[in-house]
Amino acid sequence: MATATDTGSFPAEFISDGNVKCRIVPWGECRWRLESADAQGVFRHKGAIQALSLFMGEDEPRPLADTNDGTHIEISSNPFSIKIFSPSGKPVQEIISISRNGEKTVVKGRLLDEEAIYGGGERFDSLNKRGRSFTLFTEDGWNRADTTYIAIPFFTTTRGGGFLVNAYEPMTADFGKCSANEWAIELDGTHSDIFIFATEKPADAIESAYRLMGEGSLPRRWNQGPLICRYWPDLSFFEGKRLVTRRNKSALGYGAKDIYEKHCEIGVSPTAMLIEPWPLGNFFDNTEEAVKIRKYFGERSIPLMIWMYVGSVLSKSVSGFRPEFLVHVDIYQDDKLVEPDTSYIPKIVGRTINPDSIGQSGKGVEMLDITNPEAWDWYINCIWRKLADNGIRGAKIDFCELMPDDSVDYGGLCVKYKWKNPEVFDGAAVHHAYPSFFIAKLFREASKMLEDEGGFMAFARGGGIGLQRAPYSWAGDQTRTFAKLREQLRAMLNAGMSGMPFLTCDMAGYKYERDVPSVELEGRVFARAAEFFAYSPVVQTHGDVLNVYELPIEAQEIYRTAMAEREKRAGELDDLLKVSCRKGMPVMRPLVLAFPEDKRTWDIDDEFMYGDNLLVAPILDDVEERKVYLPKGRWIREDKANSPQTYTAEAGGIEIAVEAPLGVIPLFRRIDDYSANE
């Protein structure tokens, strides 16, 4: 039975060093929930996880009365500290301060001299967060390395434990930048709610957090790709080519039939086509082009997906629509009400910048009031039933970061929501909560609807806690360069360390740099991307860049070979996806996750494990060789079938130089008796 020094019973209530009323309670599976009361001394009880469960109509997660898990805590008052111990008695976390700073709450903890920390969601900047400070707030980063489209406030360390901030509110995280041996979380609001994991391995902390946030469903085989998506006007019509000159001087405007057949000609058959809906009258309006597309791909059993804004109603012309189904807001400018009871969400320039989110009105975007049960029923039974009847099996859900928080000043502009059920969202939580709620529920309801038709795929760009339920997501807009290719891999590994095992990216990038690269260089970037995306949970292409069949023949051949290798390993991937759904263990695993005791793995972000025993070392620069670190064990280079070479690494590992000409990705299989999850 869990015990607490100086308390004797649970929930244990106490006063922090900042004179903040707090309580802690065991939560089962090596979890502890630490809450601080608000400025009035009231505990909220409802954090992000509880709010999502209530919205989904699930039983509210509650602590187990007697876990008998062997974990325990020690609470001291002078100096203030809360020490959390694992079942074996190992100290895995220490809270050293809980205080308020105006309308914000600050929680601080201890960092060991040698301790690395990971998590925070899908981030491009670094894998190890030690020595860094950043904001957990989603925005359209437009190619910035310091941005994130998915904010997951879960962190784990090489000590083995971790913690999850149970909130959608914006927050900042500092891990040893301001104070070398401290971490600090500063939350918007006068309270905090944190789950602490008293595990001894990072993998166990990830599993516990993943299950707490909500498990995902096993993806169908067609979900795994390659999924073909293009920037408008590609895929917007059935066949023929329109020449559309963009700043990069490339020709766009290939029809869906053309793009599909050209992929098949080079030996790669897409598993799904993602249709841009604009010229199609939102596709379900039975236009001639939509009928042609539906018939052609239906005959070939190729699922169709559509692009959409998060929460978009897609069409107000569908029978049964009522204006009250839309989100309504009052818009304030410099504290003055300038537009009352409007149904559009304005473009915000300030804390979140979404240059493409203006919408057709020129003012903003109209979105579904998901707190209105009648609106949701109409949306599922009319909108999505009609889409399903017209062959649509999934959605690529974009601009998940566009929802402003309620009553927050964005550079003089402020919105106040008029939800049908005002109890669903807290004011400072809407930005992250709305897309997470919408995507989780859409995925569940549409999956039920299409169970007998091959299932449903929700493919989302952003959100927060709960997004992993969908389960697939992709990471924003990056350019097609080697530098950004490295960042894409880093984002995928970061997501995996945050309890999101299924993140991918627009393979090789979404757009060009300002100066158009040569076709040859672009082909090499794409080829190197294809080499390691073959070992990712899903492959999808998108952007206003050249299609693969417009690249040099060598790049096409490497793409075909990589996808053939992926297909050969389909059974292995299925097994890994099952583990991912059950435990949250990512398909692409940073080396530190498999070898947390090996300090040399802590900062490696250009290699990963594919499952337990296959080490993948991508080429992320315009070179034909690289250095590879091999942790302790016996390894055989698997990609050199004609002359396999075996390496033995003792404790401390070894670093080797390997040749990898274009078309070769270094692969090393561990051949001794070992499992990363033993």
Throw out a few tags for this protein.
678 residues; alpha+beta; Immunoglobulin-like; TIM Barrel; eight-stranded mixed sheet; seven-stranded antiparallel sheet; 11 helices; disordered N terminus
What does it look like?
The chain is of the alpha+beta class and 678 residues long. It folds into three domains: 168 residues, Sandwich (Immunoglobulin-like); 286 residues, TIM Barrel, CATH 3.20.20; 83 residues, Golgi alpha-mannosidase II (Immunoglobulin-like, Sandwich), CATH 2.60.40.1180. Helix content is 21%, strand content 27%. It has eleven helices and 38 strands. The chain has an eight-stranded mixed beta sheet, with no helix packed on it. A seven-stranded antiparallel beta sheet has the order 2-3-4-15-12-11-9. A six-stranded parallel beta sheet has the order 27-25-20-19-16-30, with helices on one face. The radius of gyration is 25 Å and the shape is globular. The N terminus and C terminus are likely disordered.
Structural domains: how many: 3
Low-confidence stretches: 1-7, 352-361, 674-678
Radius of gyration: 25 Å
Strand content: 25-35%
Please tell me the overall pLDDT: 89
**Tally of helical segments:** 11
Largest sheet: 8 strands, mixed
How far do the termini sit from each other?
Answer: 25 Å
- From the 3D structure, determine the CATH topology of the largest domain: TIM Barrel
CATH class of the largest domain: Alpha Beta
Helix vs. strand class: alpha+beta
- Counting DSSP E segments of at least 2 residues, the number of strands comes to 38
CATH H-tier superfamily of the largest domain: Glycosidases
State the CATH architecture of the largest domain.
Alpha-Beta Barrel
* Fraction in helix: 10-25%
Strand order of the largest sheet: 1-5-6-7-8-14-13-10
**Rough outline:** globular
